[in-house]
Every structure is written in structure tokens, then in C-alpha cells.
Amino acid sequence: xxxxxxxKPFSALTSTELYEMLRLRQEVxxxxxxxxxxxxxxxxxxxxxxxxxxxxxxxxxxARVLPQGISYPEVSIGRVVSSSLSRGTxxxxxxxxxxxxxxxxxxxxxxVRIGAQSYLIEFYRSFGFEPLGDYxxxxxxxxxMLKKAD
Length: 150
Description:
- The chain is α+β, with helices and mostly antiparallel strands.
- Helix content is about 25%, strand content about 35%.
- It has one domain: Aminopeptidase.
- It contains three helices and seven strands; from the N terminus they run βαβββαβαββ.
- The mean pLDDT is about 95.
């Protein structure tokens, strides 16, 4: 699969990129998962945004990297999402790998914490994350996971 990765801080996003990322997040997290919640949480402005596009320039996967102290004491990755059209193609793995590489090149060898939907524990374990505890967020089971500095 031919893809293009774009990484930008919030201030550099074009209006089209902002629209595409918010649309994808709403499409999956709110509509598909039937979970009304406030997606715009005030953290996007402090994050770097990773957008993976296919050869037709359609946004197929997205994640944001948050500096330490925004969501957790550690650097974190959030809002990891793949479009329904790209599931099973490896797009989710590509965006996670890109996020971890970005963290390493930007912050060095640091621990990374995530709040993952619990059904994805094994997916995140494949990147070295270990579960620390469970919680319920907006009616969906989540697990706090930590990847130690490597």
C-alpha cells in the first residue's frame, strides 16, 4: 500500500487537514462506536498530529502525540484511529510506528503512556506497551498502558 505521512504541530495544520482529522475521529469514535463525547478537549493545540494518507490522498489513519504533562506525566499518544476502509491493511501499525519514531526523535528514549480501548491491548502490546490498570471512559472499557524508555 502506497502511503504518505504528514506530521505537524497544530499551528501548522491547514484548514483541510484539520477538517479531515476531526471528521475521521468523529466518524469512528462518535458515530461508529456510538459514543457521544467532546472530542475537542483542548489538547490538540499542544499536540503534534500524524496523518497517514493513501495514494488517493484520503486520510486513512491518524494519531496525536502529546508532550509530557498534558494527558499524563509521560509523553503520550492519543486518538489513534484508522478509517473503516483501511482496517486490515496495516495502516494502524504504520501510524503507531510513526508516532513512536517521532517521539524517539523528538523527546529521546522516554517512557510513553496511553489510554487504550481495552479490546486493543494485544495490538499495543506488540509495540512494547504493558497494561497498568483498567478504567471506564464514556462507557467504553479502557486500559492504561506504559511503554518503558528503550
